[in-house]
Amino acid sequence: MKQDVADTAGPDPVDARLDARLGTRLAELRAERGWSLGELAERSGISRSTLSRAERAEISPTASLLNRLCGVYGRTMSQLLSEVEPEPAQLVRAAEQQMWRDSASGFVRRSVSPPHPGLRGELVEGRLTAGADIAYDRPPVPGLEQHIWVLEGALDVTAQDVEHHLGTGDCLRLRVWGPTRFRCAGPEDVRYVLAVVLP
């Protein structure tokens, strides 16, 4: 069953500009493969109407939607987001690090080290509000290596049907082959570092 996994674009003009560039890039990726919206819907499990609205920047895509599209296009989310920026720099100041918000799930993602086509690793800072719960049905790249280091708060991570409870300072290393789930386990928000290494 196809799911509509997106929320409406927020009023922030910076977010709206990013959504517009992201929509254009998603349309380009589909066109490069010669796929119709129907074909992409079949491959991704996302409805044609949601895909069309995301490509036209009528909605702000959720983390789950982007994860599915990254899986179809063989990219990590950081790689996709970097493609809507002019060119990744070697040094990115904290104030210039790209942030992306999924307001539907309470997830904020900061690209600490934007990827470069020739590099396999990247650092991402994640923030989840108390009670936030994000499920990914598949990794963007099968066998993706992840290191999850909790800086503040508590995080429950489920992978391969095993749940891991992480507190402040804890680090989990895993290879991702199937569904994963990230849940803010405590009464306070959680902040963590996600190190991603392509296989």
Describe the structure.
This protein is an alpha+beta fold and 199 residues long. The protein is built from 5 helices and 12 strands. The strands form 3 sheets. It has a 6-stranded antiparallel β-sheet with strand order 3-4-5-12-7-10, with no helix packed on it. A 4-stranded antiparallel β-sheet has the order 6-11-8-9. Strands 1-2 form a two-stranded antiparallel ribbon. A hairpin with a 4-residue loop joins strand 3 and strand 4 (107-111). It is globular. The model is unreliable at 1-11 (pLDDT under 50).
Number of helices: 5
Q: Structural class from helices and strands?
A: alpha+beta
Which geometry do the CA atoms define? globular
Trace the largest sheet across and list its strands: 3-4-5-12-7-10
Largest sheet: 6 strands, antiparallel
Task: Estimate percent helicity.
Answer: 25-40%
Would you list the SSEs in sequence order as H and E? EHHHEHHEEEEEEEEEE
Key phrases:
alpha+beta; four-stranded antiparallel sheet; 33% strand; 5 helices; 199 residues; 12 strands; single chain
